[in-house]
Design a protein that fits this description.
Blueprint: H1 9-20, H2 24-35, H3 38-65, H4 86-118, E1 130-134, E2 137-140, H5 141-162, H6 165-193, H7 196-199, E3 206-207, E4 213-214, H8 216-231, H9 236-239, H10 247-273, H11 278-283, H12 287-296, H13 298-332, H14 350-364, H15 366-369, H16 372-404, H17 411-435, H18 439-450, H19 456-472
Antiparallel strand pairs: 1-2, 3-4
Helix pairs in contact: 1-6, 1-10, 1-13, 2-8, 3-8, 3-10, 3-16, 3-17, 4-5, 4-13, 4-14, 4-16, 4-19, 5-13, 5-14, 6-10, 6-13, 8-16, 8-17, 12-13, 13-14, 16-17, 16-18
Amino acid sequence: MNTKGKLGLGILTSLVVGNMVGSGIFMLPRSLSEVASPGGVLLAWIFTGLGVLVTALVFGNLGTRKPNLKGGPQIYAKELFKAGSKKSLLAGFMSTWGYWIGNLAGNIAIITTFAGYLSSFFPILTSEAALITIGSFTLKVGNALTFFVCTILLWGTHFIILRGIENAGKLNFMATAAKVVGFLLFIIVALLAFQTSTILPLVEPRLDEAGQAVSLFGQINHAAITTLWAFIGVESAVVFAGRAKKQLDVKRATILGLFIALAIYIGISTLVMGILNQDALISSQKPLIDAIVAVIGPMGGKILASVGLISLFGSTIGWIMLSSEVPYQAAKQGIFIPAFLKENNKKIPIFSLTVTNMLGQLFIFSTISNSISAAFDFVIYIATLSYLIPYLISSIFQLKLTITGETYQSKKERITDGIIGGLATFYSIWVIVAGTADIKTFSFGMILLLSGIFFYNQVNTQAKNKKQINHAA
């Protein structure tokens, strides 16, 4: 088999780690401290880690049992219904649309965080000075410069990927290796500076918008949607299954990448809470840098900011690759807009890549009027909820296979996979319920999801034409 241009275990694992350990590692300590006490944060990490583990096992299992279904977890939606039926087509399209929109929002969370860490070297990126005032709207210098930095990073990455998937994957691998080494050094330094008194008390009330105290269980619920953001990307190897040298590497990369990311997240999140008190964490725009500066001074902040920039650059490459691959692979399955099939001479889905980044540019406009942290909080909620539907669908599809016995020879394997699929289904439902408790977030997420219906007719027309051709033949 020709493996030129294919992705091996190392690059697939780096895509998983690189896409998971992206913007979240830098901004989540602050976001989590807003909604939960240290005890609530740690429990949310544990519950989320277990939930994502069973979900990752579902992805790995489906990847080996259904290797023909390539392109990501949303592909399984069409398999829940009769092949070739309208329900199958609609389910596949809507699931892909939601997953793709989630990717778009996720890209911008990473890109805006890159701009935030660049401000460690160029403080003018946070300047509050007025640049232009039109009516009640004032464009600040910092916001305008942040917009340009984000735009340059977006389209610079676009042209890197156009040169070839394998080369872009190697860049992502090098960036991921650099970030893992950098975070290990951070953990060593933070261990030496950790103060138990700073993280205590582990459990204390948090107040909601109405000023009411939130219980520990309520804090875990609120933190669940945020901690899940850290693990979005665990399915990256599954999305690139069609470009893998070996299908077994897809499962290996998914599990290995998850454990590496989980160790980094829990270690750093805990240690930061032992260096910065809760008030300092909540008010921080760059919590990891503020923590390291408190330990070894400004030079440490510069070094960590450099690691952050390398990390976020690698994550930007990985996420844009993934985002353009999703609708391209779905179109190959006949459940997305046909135009997304267009490739260049290097087999890059050029139409998908271009449209993905053009829509991403629209999300970048959020940096014009919001602070970096506000933009980050907004997009992670929308993106995470968009991912949960395909995750839930994948778990249900595994349950379907175990019930029907399709692809199974052993009763023991059916029972084991049935339990894993059941746990993954329960977890997805739990986080969806917790994440949609806020009606504003739920409404906006549903609007983005349903917006895809305006483009469904193109997919439906293509399916009808294929049926007519098949009947004529």
